[in-house]
Each structure stands twice: as C-alpha cells, then as structure tokens.
Design brief:
HDOD domain-containing protein, RNase_Y/CdgJ, 278 residues, 17 helices, Hypothetical protein af1432, HDOD, mainly alpha, globular
Amino acid sequence: MKLKEYINKMGNAYALPDTCVKLQQMLNDDSTNIDDIAQLVSYDPIISGLILKLANSALYNFPSQIDTVSKAIKVLGSDAVYNLVMACGTSGSLSNISTKAIDLDLFWQHSINTGLILKKLAHHYDKKQAEFLFLLGLMHNLGELVVANYTPELAKQCNQFDKKTQPFQVQQSVLSFSYTNLSAELLRHWNFPEKMIDALNNANTPIKAEPELLLYFASRLALTNTYPELYSVESIIPQAVLKHYGLSEKDIEELLEIVNLETFSVFSYINPGASAIY
C-alpha cells in the first residue's frame, strides 16, 4: 500500500475524542482561561483523574496535596495538560486497532523514551517548548500502529531490522516511506501544529534545523535504550551530532537512567492497564 492509501483508509476511523478537539479549539482562542479548561476537563472523569494523579506524582514533587482539577491545571500549566489530554486521547482512539503484528510494549517504551529524552534536552531548542517536544517524541512512531492494523504482514517485515540496519531503513525498503511520515499525516488529520508535522517528516535526516535534529538524536538514543543488544550510541548516531549536543558518555548514561525511571509513570497515564510490564 502507498502512503495515500493508508491515509484514505484511516478516514474517520481515527477521530480524536471530543475533549481533545474542544481543547485544541480553546487553546487557539486568546480569551480562554484556566477555569474554562478546568470546566472542560472536569466533564471527562478519566482525564480528570489522570491530571490529579500527574500533579501529585513524583514527576512534579509538589509539597502539598492537590485536590481539585483547577489547582492541578494551574500547577501543571496548560501545555502539560494539553499533552496529557492529547496523549490519552490518541491512545484511546487507537486502542481498538489490531496490533498483534508488533510488540506493543516495545512500541510504547521507545515512544515514551523518545518523548522524555526530548523533554530533558529541551534547552538545546527552547526550554519553553519542553512539553511540545515531549508530545512530539511520544507521537513520532504512531504510523507503526496504522501499518500493523491494515497490513500486519508488512509490519512484521518492518521489524526485521538488525545491527546493520536501522528501523527506518527497513521501513523505507518495505513501504517506500517511514513510520514517521505516516505519523505526520495522522497528526495532520488531527490538526496538530505544522511544526510538529514538519519535524516528523524530517525525523530521519540529520539536518541542522531544530527541532528536527533533536528528534533525530532523541529517537536514536531511545533505540539504544530499547534495543541495547542491537544498537550503541556510537553505531547509530553520527559523531557530528554527538559533538553538536556536547553530551559525554556519562551524561548519556545518567540521562537514560532518569528516563527509565520516569517511563513507568508516563506509561501508567497513557495505558494504565499495561503498566505492569515495568
């Protein structure tokens, strides 16, 4: 199947929940305030519970208990709330598709790792964009779920990567496009920001523009963490890219240790029933 055929098949099958659509509209309206967002979110008990759980988690480590959604949103900020709502909404909209052809645990591990690495390295792009970068990493590989659903045999072929080939190279060979290209079109369908779509379409080319280069770096660093038996930092990340970010081997080890600890918490928000894999 060609890229356009996957897009046509997706149609309305992957519609975002109403809460996500309304939140997108509200955040594009300058007159929206925290109370408006809190009122919208309060109508969804699952998301309300997750927001309170996140606000009281070790990820934020606030000194006192936060017991209302409006307080949680004020503490977390609208960007963090937007990311959580979108992550949950995306996960929910894709929850009914067939993913038997792939290892879903590894899919989420790699996606969450990429998002957290991007967030930790946000200062290389723009500290204020940390939440945007997290969502970018979390969603960069959603195309894999679409391929696994519609063409499971091709998804299995795409998983036949090894020490000499990176996943995107096998995807290009099998599909004539990468999963990130399909992810970009899925996010376009959901009216996500154009800068996120552009970053996804350039995710496998080490161009100097940001956030494209940061996504390139983070996704490959996440691969070394998800598939340590296949990849090392030296084998899949060009020296020029490593030099650009100035991270030592010790820096990378410490970064991945923190990412591994936080992945469990993030996974429990996105897919609560499956957090036992960690």
